[in-house]
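Hi all, long-time lurker, first post. I run a small reading group and we've been trying to get comfortable going from sequence to structure in the token notation. Rather than ask abstract questions, I figured I'd post a concrete chain and ask someone more experienced to write out its structure so we can walk through it together at our next meeting. Sequence below, copied exactly:
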Amino acid sequence: MPSSALLDKAAKSKYMDLETNGITQAMYIWIDGSGESMRCKTRSLDNEPKDISELPMWNFDGSSTGQAEGSNSDCFLKPCAMFNDPFRGAPNKLILCEVLNYKMEAVETNHRKTCKEVMSQVKEDHPWFGMEQEYTLLDVDGHPFGWPKQGFPGPQGPYYCAVGTGNVYGREVVEAHYKACIYAGITISGTNAEVMPAQWEFQVGPCEGIKMGDHLWMARFLLHRVCEDFGVVASFDPKPMNGDWNGAGCHCNYSTEKMRLPGGFDEINNAVEKLSKRHNYHIQAYDPQGGKDNMRRLTGLHETSSIFDFSSGIANRQASIRIPRHVSC
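-- Answer (accepted) --
Happy to help. Here is the structure in token form:
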């Protein structure tokens, strides 16, 4: 077990209450070269920033994060979104950053830059997103939290949206994460226990445009950070356990202004038709491994569609695109 999981968390509290004489701690956060893991470091600011434009750029060793060569290792952090820090409290901030190389160009895993450009092109459509992020809580040994160490819990069935000892694993983490997101200013809209024991989901949105990505990534960061305090691990692996267990995905709810207006169902069908023609391309973009991670999850079983086939349907959890029944009415 890592030594950090054994530390006395309560001992830290007396230091966190110390006066800082007007200094603001700003934690800069970014996505590393894996395209899925996150890194962070903190700097002191003389004043509390009120706007993202007041934050200075910073740099880091990109050769240690898979984003630069050792012979030219400097990468730069460009502040993009600011949130309240639920761990240090006011006036401290969490700063989501884009990563730039020595030419001040976006590094390969900086997808925010191109996403923002696309969102600017379609801003008149007022695209709304709602993301449903599933995850699995693991013990430090990599085994699902609360599962018998030499076996398995009972079959799936009683765990989805469950309550009660034996049905729920790790609610303390979920509640702490929920409150941390609200305090930070993230548009978190809900949470629930999922089908596999120790598996949970939180929902972020609706958010318009680039705000969706900023809020989802910061919510993921907060989850990892909360798990530090509880000595457990949050995994976004699409299929953490082989066998008759559900995987974990991140479902995307999407609409444009025309889709939300009366008669918008035709607009939805037009969008589904367009998506059907680029299914393979979208699957490759869906995870950092070009779709290989999701081949373990999207099998056509456990409430998924096959990764090889595009489908759509109303209230159909085995379709690529599921249209809620109330939307079709």
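A couple of things your group might point at:
The longest strand covers residues 74-84.
The longest helix spans residues 211-230.
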